[in-house]
Write a structure and sequence with these properties.
This protein is an alpha/beta fold and 100 residues long. 29% of the residues lie in helices and 20% in strands. The protein has helices at 32-38, 51-67, 82-86, and strands at residues 15-19, 40-44, 74-78, 95-99. The strands form 2 sheets. Strands 1-2 form a two-stranded parallel sheet. A two-stranded parallel sheet has the order 3-4. Strand 3 (74-78), helix 3 and strand 4 form a beta-alpha-beta unit. The chain is globular.
């Protein structure tokens, strides 16, 4: 969430945070400043979804991406630089993608 917090009050295009499942834990902590200025929209999926329903949700996300309704900035980095990339805090909403 820190990377989504803008440095100004320019109010960027909203970002959807879609929380699905609890395998990593049942809690989500979000800094107040992230919500005040980021334009983040938080969505969630119901606990106890079966594999078929999860597959349908995944398919919907793929559709949104292909249609352009769901967009994100991507910054590529060499796989050999993974350790450095993992520690970055300057992304401001961009997504890192490792490439060979």
């Amino acid at each position: 969430m820190r990377t989504l917090t803008p440095e100004s009050f320019a109010f960027p295009k909203p970002t959807r945070l879609i929380q699905v499942g609890e395998a990593a834990g049942g809690g989500l902590t979000v800094a107040a400043e992230s919500l005040r200025t980021s334009g983040v929209e938080i969505y969630g999926a119901s606990k106890g979804l079966d594999a078929r329903t999860m597959g349908g949700l995944y398919g919907r996300i793929v559709e949104w991406t292909r249609s352009g309704e769901l967009t994100f900035e991507v910054e590529k980095f060499p796989l050999r630089d993974s350790e450095t990339a993992w520690q970055r805090t300057d992304l401001r909403g961009r997504r890192l993608v490792a490439v060979p």
